[in-house]
Amino acid sequence: MRTDLESRLRNRLTDDGYLFPDYGEYCFANVADTVQSVLGVGGERSLPPDVFPDPSASYDRVLLVLVDGFGLAHWKRHRSHPVVERLEERARVTPLTSLYPSETAAALTTFHTARLPVSHGVLGWDVYDPAADATCEAFTTEVTAGDETVDRDLEDVFEGDPIYPALERAGIDCRHVVPFPETYTGATCHTYGPEPTLEGFVPVLREAFAAADDPAYLYAYLPQIDSVAHEHGSTSDEYGEVVDRVFQTIEEALSALDSDEAGDTLVLLTADHGHVDTRAERNVDLERFDTVMESLQRHETGDPVRYAGSPRNLHLYLRPGTVDRVRTLLERELDAQIFTREAALECELFGPEPKSEPFSRRLGDLVVVHRDSLVWYGSDRTKLEFVGMHGGLHPDEMLVPFAAAELEQLV
After folding, report:
1. 137 phi/psi in degrees, rounded to 5
2. pLDDT in tens, 228-272
3. Phi and psi dihedrals of 58, rounded to 5?
4. Cis link prior to 223 (omega < 30° from 0)?
5. DSSP readout, 175-220?
6. How far is CA 52 from the centre of its chain?
7. What is the number of H-type helices and E-type strands within the chain?
8. Cα separations (Å) of 210 from 119, 182, 194, 222, 235?
9. A Gene Ontology molecular-function term (predicted)?
10. Cα-flanking dihedrals φ and ψ of residue 207, to 5°?
11. Which CATH number does 123-153+279-385 carry?
12. Which residues lie across from 64 on neighbouring strands?
């Protein structure tokens, strides 16, 4: 583990306890272009070469394992686990920052498109688009507020294209091992599960690995740790049990792969974000603030525009003339960073410009980032009851591991 780099990132990127993304260098947002660069098909925004054990080495295939929600703080807490310990001994483990917001909807859209949030426009789990007068969930596309007649496919939610059709045209065989029945255009889907179990992961990854033709990019997605953190928190016994199962499964899966390909395969293991454990009694129900509720814009139905972003990345869409009043109130009442649109753009919170038109529509008048608790609406009580959560700028959710090693070093 490169603790010296972690210290430098913290010192350079932290302001009043909030840790900002390192978009230009050591950032999860740069992983997609890094993989493309390794496979010889470009990549405009790659990680620094020192994230690799041997920056001059070349590989026929890349296997990237994404452990959703397993941030650097959690990695260090579980570094005595035999598999994590072996990764630290045999791989090069580099700390990265997540992007903003530090949540799966934005981060994985960046991962699959190589676009920053300022470009792809997915600014949280709940995506409010004024052009449609509707809020939908980023990955399910289910409309949760506003115009219920809006019908979207997954790839309608974000601006731009997935990276996989271009990789396919360049001769890269892309395969996704996921607990879902389908994946992005240009990649072959190999399904295990059902979610959130690990059932079938080992044979399905082996099947995908054997079927791939070089050069190849294999992506394996494991959401189980993130799921248990939301429900029980990252210090619970339940969390520890799932961490153990996930990493034992990863070890079994790597050991089951064809040894003939081991010397030509680069294995990457990373996470999109970490977690902050919250206490329900400290979480904030915005519906108790009359000034806020009265200031919210309205759907055509007359209902307030509430659900946008997430409880650690809350976007507020406000009526003209109310922004300063609401900001002053929230700065007084909450231990939080309150960004205006202008401030968010100036500090490149969602990434450096150019910004897309969907991003410009969807960015709230205010973005509320609590230091360590949740801010949401009591009418959507489930989200206020999560124990583990992410999306904000706490170091525990913003720092993630990036491990790199040749497959033959790990098996």
Report:
1. -75, 135
2. 999 999 999 999 999 999 999 999 999 999 888 777 999 999 999
3. -120, 155
4. no
5. EEEESSS---TTSEEEE--STT--TTHHHHHHHHHHHPPSSEEEEE
6. 22
7. 18, 20
8. 36, 20, 22, 20, 37
9. hydrolase activity
10. -60, -45
11. 3.30.1360
12. 219, 268
Give the 3-state secondary structure of residue 386: coil
Alpha carbon distance 65, 271 (integer Å): 8
For 253, what's the count of Cα atoms within 13 Å in the CB-facing half-sphere?
A: 27
Backbone angles phi, psi at 204, to 5 degrees: -70, -40
Q: Are 70 and 86 in contact (CB under 8 A)?
A: no
Alpha-carbon gap, residue 177 to 292, rounded angstroms: 44
Contact of 334 with 289, CB cutoff 8 Å: no
> Please, which pLDDT band fits residue 153 given cuts at 50, 70 and 90?
low
Structural tokens at position 132: 């449609």
According to DSSP, the β-strands at 216-222 and 61-67 are parallel
Tell me phi and psi for residue 282, to 5 degrees: -100, -10
Please tell me whether the overall predicted TM-score, pTM, comes out greater than 0.85 for this model.
Answer: yes
Strand partners, 162: none
E strands, 249-407, in order:
265-270, 276-277, 284-285, 309-310, 313-316, 336-340, 366-370, 375-376, 388-389, 399-406
**Are the beta carbons of 109 and 122 closer than 8 angstroms?**
yes
Angle in degrees, CA 129, 376, 321, rounded to 5: 60
Q: Give domain limits for the chain.
A: 3-115+158-277+394-410, 123-153+279-385
Nearest alpha carbon to residue 267 among 102, 51, 110, 103: 51
What distance separates the 2 farthest-apart alpha carbons in the chain? 66
* pLDDT tens per residue, range 334-345: 999 999 999 999
Q: How far apart are the first and last CA of the chain?
A: 20
Q: What three-state secondary structure class fits 30?
A: helix
Cis before 203 (ω within 30): no
What confidence score (pLDDT) does residue 145 get? 63
Rounded to whole angstroms, the Cα distance separating 122 from 170 reads 27
- Given a contact cutoff of 8 angstroms between Cβ atoms, the answer to whether 233 and 216 are in contact is no
CA atoms within 13 A on the CB side of 404: 23
> Of the candidates 226, 250, 240, which has an alpha carbon nearest to the alpha carbon of residue 78?
240
Rounded average pLDDT over 138-153: 58
